[in-house]
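Task card 7
Instruction: Convert sequence to structure tokens.
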Amino acid sequence: MQEKFQLKMDQFLPLRDVVFNTLRQAILTGELKPGERLMEIHLADQLGVSRTPIREAIRKLELEGLVTMIPRRGAEVAQITEKSMNDVLEVRRAVDALCVELACERITAQELERLGEACEEFAREATKKEKDVKLLAEKDVALHDIIVQATGNQRLIQLVNNLSEQMYRYRFEYLKDFSQHEKLVEEHQVIYESIVKKDKETACEAAKLHIDNQKKSIIRQIRLDKGKN
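Output:
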């Protein structure tokens, strides 16, 4: 295991939560890779903490499905499987379609302006020669968050927030496929223009296609990774 990440201290959180958030983020962003062993002693040394908060964090990560306990091996970062991805993306597909439909009705002029700017920011990042996948993921999240907030539906916003952390891991896998970036930019533009025109049907279809294409790309990545092992 390489030295990759550091403890992200937060004076308002107990140490065990800081350790949990640090390891969780490392898994979601791929700094800790699927199948990588989580050795308590090594992690404790790396983060400068005792083994107790590491053990507690690993137990919580197991409950979230991000860590798997393997007999005689211990804790490992959970593999990204087609089943787990399908479960998340099925829900996200339906939710995103609802979000763009409501955004067509309710988005304000100010939110629309911000959405246009977010599309441009993502496009700029996606067309750079030297790509920063983590930054690109942040731009993608920011863009979709504007649409979600524009619905004005607090229950829906809460549901998307609950899904977003699980979605982040798959989003990151998708964005690692540089061949899809041009298509992503085009899909964002279609969604944006549909919302501008208040064209619910086109917006919904574009949102669903957006998820379907992510699904195909991630399945390719999963099968490619399996072939390497």
